[in-house]
Amino acid sequence: MSYLSLKYLHILSMVLLFGTGLGSAFYKWMADRSGNLAHIAVMNRHVVLADWLFTTPTVIFQPISGLWMVYLLHYPLTTPWIMLSLVLYALAGACWLPVVWLQIQMRRLSEHALATQTELPTLYWRYARYWFWLGVPAFIAMILIVLLMVFKFTGGV
Q1: Is 79 exposed, middle or buried (0-12, 13-18, 19+ CB in 10 A)?
Q2: What does the pLDDT read at residue 157?
Q3: What are the tens digits of pLDDT across the range 101-117?
């Protein structure tokens, strides 16, 4: 595969990863704020599905394609912007893994509440807070990775 084809796929994958994450977070957060149990349950189901269909493949593809481009360009892994990108990606991943588990638990809790016509338990809202706050450093890390990808620097202008 040519470098430009790989770069195109890498950028497309990044857009899908970032867009799906941001879109899912927005719609789930808005559903939770609505208080509408049916809406919350459906949105939790869709967020989990979006993670499996879009986020998981791109999470896998991003480091593969990025490292492949590094190899093709003969950049050392010790290049500061590459090292920092990898550290930030690991940080985002360390936040994302518990988020996936939390989303599955919130889906289960909301579907149970809907089926039994009961309120969402306190545990649901605790998980929602953890989910939100784990998303903050992951989102910031992804913004910084895109910055590093585009400008290929670690500081200064």
Answers
A1: middle
A2: 44
A3: 999 999 999 999 999 99
Going from the C-alpha of 142 to that of each of 29, 64, 73, 133, 135, the distances in angstroms are: 19, 16, 23, 15, 10
Q: Is 156 exposed, middle or buried (0-12, 13-18, 19+ CB in 10 A)?
A: exposed
For residue 133, give the H/E element and its range.
helix 122-151
CA 9, CA 66: separation in Å to the nearest integer?
A: 10
Q: Which of 62, 54, 71, 67 is nearest to 9 (CA)?
A: 62
Structure tokens at 16: 């899908």
For residue 124, give both structure tokens: 């649901």
55-103, pLDDT tens digit by residue?
Answer: 999 999 999 999 999 999 999 999 999 999 999 999 999 999 999 999 9
Query: Tokens standing for 138?
Result: 């992951």
